[in-house]
Amino acid sequence: MHKTTQSPLTRMLLENPKQYVSGEMISQQLGISRTAVWKQIKKLESIGYEIEAVTKLGYRLLYYPKAIDHLQIEQQLQGHRLGNVIHHYDVVDSTQVIAKQLAEEGATEGTVVLAEQQVKGKGRLGRHWHSPYAKGIWMSVILRPQIPIQLAPQLTLLTAVALCRAMRTYSGLEIGIKWPNDLLYQGKKLSGILLESSAEDQMLKYVIAGIGIDANLSANDYDEQLALKATSLRLLMGKEIDRTELIQLFLTEWELIMEIYERSGFRPIAELWEAHAISLGQKLSLTTPTETFMGTPLRLTDAGSIIVQLEDGTEKEIYSAEMGEVTSNSRL
Amino acid sequence: MHKTTQSPLTRMLLENPKQYVSGEMISQQLGISRTAVWKQIKKLESIGYEIEAVTKLGYRLLYYPKAIDHLQIEQQLQGHRLGNVIHHYDVVDSTQVIAKQLAEEGATEGTVVLAEQQVKGKGRLGRHWHSPYAKGIWMSVILRPQIPIQLAPQLTLLTAVALCRAMRTYSGLEIGIKWPNDLLYQGKKLSGILLESSAEDQMLKYVIAGIGIDANLSANDYDEQLALKATSLRLLMGKEIDRTELIQLFLTEWELIMEIYERSGFRPIAELWEAHAISLGQKLSLTTPTETFMGTPLRLTDAGSIIVQLEDGTEKEIYSAEMGEVTSNSRL
Question: Model ipTM?
Answer without folding.
Answer: 0.82
